Amino acid sequence: MAGVMVLAVLETLLRSDLEMRAMALVFGAVPVAALLFRRSHPLAAVLGAFGIHGISYLVPLGEHTHESTSLYVTALVLVLPYSLLRWGSGREAAAGLAFILLTHTGAFIGQPTATAEVIAGFAVLELPAALGASVRYRAVSRVRELDQVKLLEREQLARELHDTVAHHVSAIAIQAQAGRAVAGADPDAALDVLAVIEAEASRTLSEMRTMVSALREGDEPSLAPQRGVADIGRLAEHHTTGPVIEVASTSDLGELAPSVDAAVYRLAQESITNAVKHARRATRIRVEVVGEAGAVRLTVSDDGEVSGATATAAPGYGIVGMQERVTLLGGTLEAGPNRDRGWTVSAVLPRAAGAR
């Protein structure tokens, strides 16, 4: 863009047929500067560039023609229709294209211009837009194809993981049964069986780590200890602004399956995040973890305002993900607005994962 601005200044100084050079520089350089925002704010760039372009036709210039007060470098704004269709949303693309056509039509008002010239101008403007739409479609299709390939490969790895683990665990179970049979009569043979079990277990763990690392989205697995119920109190430390987070738990929370322990923490984390983001005018978020006979209950509630649209809206991806996690572990989850004020998420999980 710095180079383009230099070209605009040079063109302003060197062109002999250019009149009203200061105005030409403004109307030529400012629209081109909108290219800086063509990806992050494509609609704003189009509105700014083509808006100034349209204004340049309406400014009274006396006897001067538009051609004698415009820069050739301004033609670079043709990149903007491409960027609009390549990076903008559907609504942005529709609004931007309508504005481009409006400014283009306005430029010919009051001028004896042939219809063929107007149509040719439309074609010149729409060609970059069509190219942007084509590139976007190809890019999205490519991403979908890659995701499909990854999904198929992950399913294959998951099946291989199941088959591998099942094979080794079956061998461990058989060896354990054999060890029990010979332990009393031949202790040395029992030690040999234990050595075989240890080797099978180590091989199984190694293969599981290899498979799971291949299934991870990130490049490196996290080495931090897995969070659990005992870490829920620390969630308040990550939200220093906004509603006050209160955490209450009972002492009867021992003997939780590792997957259940981690799930309770993740459910609390997701529920708190949702409340902080979406609970309007909330002042308090309360988290309760209660140990029950054979189960653990998590309740997260806030005192924010709930509109009618929010109360009847379909559950978001966060709620759907929590429901899936709870269902896989054999639990139940309920989420919805309270009778008077606020929103509550309540989950009940068995202490042993998968228990019903």
Count every beta strand, where a strand is a DSSP E run of 2 or more residues: 5
Radius of gyration: 33 Å
The H/E string reads HHHHHHHEHEEHHEE
Strand content: 5-15%
Query: Quick one: biggest sheet?
Result: 5 strands, mixed
Low-confidence stretches: none
How would the global form be characterised?
A: elongated
Q: How many DSSP helices?
A: 10
Fraction of residues in helix: 55-70%
Structure notes:
With 356 residues, the protein is α+β, with helices and mostly antiparallel strands. The protein has 10 helices and 5 strands. It has helices at residues 2-14, 21-33, 42-58, 79-87, 90-106, 115-183, 187-215, 258-278, 308-312, 317-328, and strands at 244-249, 284-292, 295-302, 332-337, 343-350. A 5-stranded mixed β-sheet has the order 1-2-3-5-4, covered by helices on one side. The protein is elongated and about 110 Å long. The model has no long low-confidence stretch (mean pLDDT 79).
Topology at a glance:
Layout: H1 2-14, H2 21-33, H3 42-58, H4 79-87, H5 90-106, H6 115-183, H7 187-215, E1 244-249, H8 258-278, E2 284-292, E3 295-302, H9 308-312, H10 317-328, E4 332-337, E5 343-350
Parallel strand pairs: 1-2
Antiparallel strand pairs: 2-3, 3-5, 4-5
Helix pairs in contact: 1-2, 2-3, 3-4, 3-5, 4-6, 5-6, 6-7, 8-10
